Amino acid sequence: MAIKKQYLKSKPVCKVTFSVPAEEAEKVAVVGDFNNWNAKGSTLKKLKNGIFKGTFDLPTENAYEFRYIIDGAYTNDEEADRFQWNDYAGTENAVLEV
Question: Which keywords accompany this UniProt record (predicted)?
Fold first, then answer.
């Protein structure tokens, strides 16, 4: 899994690209604070090489908890900036700082 950040000079936005290698998966989405944990509209596109990829514009100077949903199963990104316990979910979430 990989996270790429590209900061825009023209506005306080960071283009964040999520890449998830999941060749056997049918569907991958990224959910988090930035989209109210809603998988609708946050589905990643599967490329021919089996990697799911998607780019989102996120306001800078924020930290966002997030997780991937791979065929219905929640998972964290090992390359997240840090991890944080979430009482509501009863588990650790990945955290992205932009």
Answer: Hydrolase
Q: Which helix (H) or strand (E) holds 36?
A: none
CA angle 15, 82, 88 (to 5 degrees): 100
Amino acid in the structure at residue 79 = E
CA distance 60 to 73: 28
> Is 2-97 CATH 1.20.120.1460?
no
Per-domain residue ranges of the chain = 2-97
27, 8 in Cβ contact below 8 A? no
Q: Is the pLDDT of residue 89 over 90?
A: no
Q: Is 94 exposed, middle or buried (0-12, 13-18, 19+ CB in 10 A)?
A: buried
Reading the block at residue 80, the tokens are 């997240």
Check residue 88 and give its pLDDT. 87
pTM for this model (two decimals): 0.93
